[in-house]
Amino acid sequence: PYDLLIANILAGPLVSLAPDFARAVPPGGNLLLAGLLAGEQEAAVKRAMRHAGFRMAARARRGHWAILW
Q: What is the pLDDT of residues 21-55, one digit of tens each?
């Protein structure tokens, strides 16, 4: 297990990897996701992560790009 997992990849792979991330990050661990376009991509990733058991702690946005923690 990892206390912190950082992924800066495309939204499609992030959605597919959500169950794997849930197995790799124990309760109390952190997942930081970057490389997402704010809007539709971000929403799809947020749904997948919620479904995998994650809850969002923070969100940052710079221009069209979003980072989810």
A: 999 999 999 999 998 999 989 999 999 999 999 99
Taking Cα atoms as reference points, which of 53, 51, 17, 1 lies closest to residue 33?
A: 17
Residues recorded for the chain: 69
Q: Which residue, 31, 17, 18, is CA-closest to 59?
A: 31
Angle value at C-alpha 8, between 42 and 64, nearest 5 degrees: 45
Radius of gyration of the chain from its Cα atoms, rounded to whole angstroms: 11
The C-alpha atoms of residue 44 and residue 68 are separated, in whole angstroms, by 12
User: For position 19, what pLDDT does the model report?
Assistant: 98
- Under the banding of pLDDT at 50, 70 and 90, the label for residue 7 is very high
Amino acid at 65: W
